[in-house]
Amino acid sequence: MEKNSEFIERHLDKVSRSFAFCIRQLPEPLHLWVGISYLLCRIVDTVEDSEFSDLNHQLEAFDWFDRSITEHKSNLEMYQYPQNLLPAGISEGEADLLRESARVFEVFWSMDETARDRVSKLAHSMSLGMRHFRTRSQEGLRLKNLKEVNQYCFFVAGLVGEMLVGFVSQVEPRFPMSVSQVLKAHHFGLFLQKVNLLKDQLKDQKLGRFLVPSRGEVESSARENAGQAFLFLTDLPLEQMEFRRFCAWSLFMGIESLKAASTGFRKGLSQKMSRPQTEALLMEVEERLGDNSRLKELFESSSKGLGWVEAPDFKSLSAVREAESSEKAPGWFFQLYQGALPAQDFSALGIV
Fold first, then answer.
1. Which of 67-71, 122-126, 180-184, 319-323 is predicted with the least confidence, judged by mean pLDDT?
2. In the predicted model, what is the mean pLDDT of residues 264-284?
């Protein structure tokens, strides 16, 4: 029988080569935890992104995911994605992942209980958040302002950052989980998701998904997200070098991808990093990985290519939180979110 690690690697290669490459660097148990969590998130993301012939079918697919991520079943067939709900137009890798969903959930339910419970709550929150934005209007998914962009990115990607904080704090006593670190990790997720929104804006709009109400505002807001993501990276202990590499590669490739996306948007086409550019970047990151001051130099030089005259302010999150409004998040937000952030700290993420 195929080993869990081989199963994860096979599907990661099909649905995201870039993340597969990053996740492959992680040691156990982080490799399994992060890998299977990514596949779970990709499953619900496929449900959210796909075009269904009937909205009720999409809601049934969300219901199936919510049951599978929260209820342990002895019968593995209960975790099998319903074939009658398989959406049209998805990639071969996504279709294969849905067809083998029972194995994904089997591996998930075999995880360490603490890690599994964390993923269960946050992935369920992700599903509920995606459902909220998908069903609130008959016109399809449309974000009206930057606040809604931040709310959407919170559920779609910020929660992934929160999962990662929990994972690394569980295996590394020198990195205890705290509200400050959870916030920085959410910023990390928000930054990477905004890169995706900006990169895919033209394609999404052709599909009726309007996720960038103001390109200038979204690009500008990504500046603070990137700065806090960098602080998260440099807070990681040197003893967790593999996890630092995983985060550093993701962050710096995100910055370079944003440069390419900005250039491509101006030309009206999709533009990506070339393989030689990617390899050169990863070598540069590797040389600096154990030295925070040299990483900061690279971050600042890379950021200037985005039109940021200066790199994002490296303010402590306590300063950021004190400067933010005390306005509360909307009531629906609390009903959907099952994570560790106190209500008073949501404003630091721009969601109120």
1. 319-323
2. 76
Q: Choose among 9, 17, 20, 340: nearest CA to 181.
A: 340
Distance CA 220, CA 230 (A): 16
User: Tokens 């916030």 map to which residue?
Assistant: 183
Is residue 264 very low, low, confident or very high in pLDDT (cuts 50, 70, 90)?
low
Query: Closest Cα to residue 162, out of 352, 344, 342?
Result: 342
Residues 264 and 169 in one domain: yes
> 90 is written with which tokens?
């998805």
69 and 16 co-located in one domain: yes
Let me know: does 277 contact 252? Beta carbons within 8 Å: no
Which residues form the domain of 77? 1-136
* C-alpha angle 147-149-153 in degrees, rounded to nearest 5: 120
pLDDT greater than 90 at residue 266: no
142 DSSP β-pair partners = 210
Considering the entire predicted model, what is its pTM? 0.92
Q: How far apart are CA 283 and CA 286, in angstroms?
A: 5
- Looking at the fold, whether 69 and 174 belong to one and the same domain comes out as no
What are the tens digits of pLDDT across the range 163-189? Answer: 999 999 999 999 999 999 999 999 999
Domain with 316 in it: what CATH number? 1.10.600.10
For 216, residues 6+ apart whose C-beta sits below 8 A from its C-beta are none
- Say if CB 64 and CB 91 are below 8 A apart: no
For 37-41, the CB contacts below 8 A with 24+ separation are: 37/119, 37/123, 37/160, 37/163, 38/12, 38/160, 39/8, 39/11, 39/12, 39/15, 39/97, 39/104, 40/69, 40/104, 40/105, 40/108, 40/119, 40/123, 41/123, 41/126, 41/160
- 175 and 41 in a common domain: no
